[in-house]
Design a protein that fits this description.
The structure is a single chain. The protein has 357 residues and is mainly alpha-helical. The protein has a domain at 192-341. It has 13 helices and no strands.
């Protein structure tokens, strides 16, 4: 009697289990989505608390009581968000609606004049632009006409999650020192000193990235506010602020800001439009390929080409989310490689040696 091949049976069972999981993917994905929806606010809150913890420690070292320091940080965050919304919602959205309508009207009139002057049939192009204009202005018009009450109703879920995130972040921030101490004691009890040193190194690298990001955002805010002020743009402060916020998305974050700047300048005067287009073409390239790589290279020793490649690869793999996470993940992987370089090189050498044999 032949012996039972248990390896084959185990492999077959694993394949069957994977197949059953795949058949039930709709159910599992639904459950997974619910779990992510529940945990995501807490993960975001912990991330915010982790980033703000050095600021809290700095205030405490200067003699500010911990409770007062927490209140100061919360007030600054709430005021900052409120200031952005106050600038954006009542002032810019109606202006964008009016000027977008005017821009498309001017473009359609230009096509009509061109077709009459040169006797060219551009009816299809005119209709296409009219359709795009109608869709954009209808969406903007609906969003504006709904008013603040409708906007709040539609965004109730987002507002609720934001409030939860802020509250949980405050709790995490107040207890962050204990969380860090518990984690360090856990690693010390495992008697693996190298792992503890690795996480401390990673902690320093992440905080260096956060400091570099804050410096870069401040530079962008000052730069764009000054430039738009010098060329005479009436919304220079808001555009500078939006440019700074847009640095969350490396290389591409300024596109929306520049689009708003061009649209708002297009119906003011031709001179301002030309200057705005020049600014929108030149400065994002300077920021994306010179300023940003130099700042991050100095703080985290990220090679310029690697940071550019990481952003483009992140965008190709996961879109906007990939672009946002590209640099932090690159820093984590680069720090890990540098710390465990000898082990990684040795493992690769062993694998290569076995492959040759």
């Amino acid at each position: 009697m032949k012996k039972i091949n248990y390896k084959l049976i185990n492999t077959l069972l694993i394949v069957i289990i994977i197949f059953l999981i795949w058949l039930m993917k709709d159910l599992w994905m639904g459950v997974l989505k619910k779990v992510v929806d529940v945990l995501l606010p807490f993960v975001i809150a912990f991330g915010i608390a982790y980033v703000l913890h050095p600021l809290l420690k700095s205030l405490i070292r200067k003699g500010v009581p911990k409770s007062v320091a927490l209140i100061i940080i919360c007030i600054v965050i709430v005021l900052f968000i409120s200031f952005i919304l106050w600038l954006l919602i009542p002032n810019i959205l109606p202006l964008i609606f009016e000027q977008t309508t005017s821009l498309f009207s001017s473009l359609i009139k230009f096509i009509q004049d061109l077709s009459v002057k040169y006797d060219v049939n551009l009816v299809g192009l005119k209709e296409a632009i009219s359709d795009v204009s109608y869709q954009i202005t209808s969406s903007l018009g609906k969003g504006i006409s709904d008013g603040f009450i409708s906007i709040i109703n539609q965004s109730l879920g987002i507002i609720s999650k934001t409030i939860i995130i802020i509250i949980v972040a405050v709790y995490f921030l107040s207890d962050m020192e204990n969380i860090r101490n518990i984690f360090e004691r856990y690693l010390e009890n495992r008697k693996n000193k190298k792992t503890l040193r690795y996480f401390r190194k990673l902690d320093d690298a992440i905080h260096n990235y956060v400091n570099a990001f804050a410096l870069y955002a401040l530079i962008i805010f000052i730069q764009y506010t000054t430039v738009f002020y010098l060329i005479g743009h009436p919304h220079y402060l808001l555009l500078g602020l939006l440019s700074a916020v847009g640095t969350i998305i490396p290389y591409f974050g300024g596109i929306v800001t520049n689009l708003i700047a061009v649209i708002t300048a297009s119906v003011i005067n031709t001179k301002l439009l030309i200057f705005t287009i020049i600014v929108s073409i030149i400065f994002p390239n300077i920021d994306g390929y010179i300023t940003s790589p130099k700042i991050y290279n100095k703080s985290n020793q990220i090679p310029t080409l690697l940071s550019i490649f990481a952003v483009f690869a992140g965008g190709a793999i996961a879109g906007i989310k990939g672009i946002i996470l590209a640099l932090p993940l690159t820093i984590i992987m680069l720090t890990t490689y540098r710390f465990y370089r000898n082990e990684i090189t040795s493992s690769i050498g062993k694998i290569t040696k076995k492959a040759k044999e």
